[in-house]
Structure formats: C-alpha cells, structure tokens
Amino acid sequence: MAEHNELGKTGEAIAANYLTQKGYEILDRNWRYDKKEVDLFAFFDKKLISIEVRTRTSDGWEHPKETITDAKIRFIVEATEAYINEKDIEEEVRFDVVTVMPNGDEWDIEHIEEAFHPLL
C-alpha cells in the first residue's frame, strides 16, 4: 500500500479512537456509495455524524481542513444521503471534520463540529 494510504488509515484510526474517547459511537468506517466514501459515521448527542478525516504530515502548504473542496462536500453529502436511506436513519445529521497531523511522537488532533453544511 502506498505511504500516503498508510498515513490516511493511521489518521482515521486515531480519529476514531479520539471520537470514541469523547463518547461518540462509531457506526461505520470507510463506507462507500458508488465511488464516494465517508471516512466515519458516528452517533452522538442524538445525531448522525458524518466525519471527514484529513491526515497530513504538516500544514506547510495549507491546513488539512482547507483541502476539502466544494466537490468533496457534494460527494460526502451524496454518500451520507445514501447511508441514511440504506440504514433508514431519521436522526438529524451533522458534518464534522477531524484533522490529524504528527507532532514529534504525538498527534495533533482538531475536531471541527459542523465544519460544513450541504451546498445548495
């Protein structure tokens, strides 16, 4: 597996562990619809949380959260709608982003709740 794929998988595992420690119930990881993927689905505070995880080795060029384009948002929203329909979910939905970056032997984790809303 390519090094960037390994970094992404590591970041997703760190994000899932972090969210679990905060009381989130992880429902699915790497859920696919067509060619679209949502990194994590979780349940928290009576809401379905659709979570995009961004892992980078540094923020030298741009912060990881700034790499989420309008097209990516549309893909996440479309896949989340498919997930809701498939799982027959009626709860409110929130879209979060978790960024993960190495910092020496530690990881810097930023959890951005309501990072974006579906585009019209």
Descriptive key words:
120 residues, alpha+beta, Trna Endonuclease, Chain: A, domain 1, 2 helices, 31% helix, globular
Describe the structure.
With 120 residues, this protein is α+β, with helices and mostly antiparallel strands. The protein has a single domain, classed as Trna Endonuclease, Chain: A, domain 1. Helix content is 31%, strand content 38%. The chain has a five-stranded mixed sheet. The longest helix has 19 residues, at 3-21. It starts with a helix and ends in an 8-residue tail after the last strand.
Q: Outline the biggest β-sheet.
A: 5 strands, mixed
Outline the low-pLDDT stretches.
Answer: none
- Strand residue percentage: 35-45%
The CATH class name reads Alpha Beta
The end-to-end span amounts to 37 Å
Task: Estimate nothing, just give the exact number of structural domains.
Answer: 1
- Which strand order spans the largest sheet, edge to edge or round the barrel? 1-2-3-4-5
CATH architecture: 3-Layer(aba) Sandwich
Q: What is the SS-derived class? A: alpha+beta
One letter per element, helices H and strands E, the order comes to HEEEHEE
The value of Rg in angstroms is: 14 Å
Number of strand segments: 5
Q: In CATH terms, what is the fold-level topology?
A: Trna Endonuclease, Chain: A, domain 1
Number of helices: 2
